[in-house]
Amino acid sequence: MSSPPDNDLQPGRPDQARILVVDDEPAVRRALTRGLERRGFRVSSADGRMALAAAALDAPDLILLDVQLPDAKGPTLYLRLVARWPHLRRRVILMSSRPYLTGTDIPAEVSSLQLLPKPFDLDMLYDLVDQVLHEPAGP
Known about the structure:
Layout: E1 18-22, H1 26-38, E2 42-46, H2 51-58, E3 62-66, H3 74-84, E4 92-96, H4 108-111, E5 114-117, H5 122-133
Parallel strand pairs: 1-2, 1-3, 3-4, 4-5
């Protein structure tokens, strides 16, 4: 198991942050990557099948995770990610076309995460990313 990255990000220095975008739609991954790179973030992306491998390779500080992946349920994938990298527990933003998460299949830990509704605008994305990156990381 790899050790957690340094999560003492300095305000105004997004270039220090690594973000992993996990979505099944290539166009969404490209749009998020371009937008976040313009803000100075280092961005990688993957579909649901490759998310764990991408996280292992890139050691992200934050993950944008689609809830409705065809090849892996977002909540299940979240639990697998934080089981392996506990420092990401509060560093995941869920993305969904539904305005809120409900249902018995959504663990309480997952329903308490930040949610970025789709479609989204870049200002909303930037605000949410900045907010989550400046909260303390850890289990």
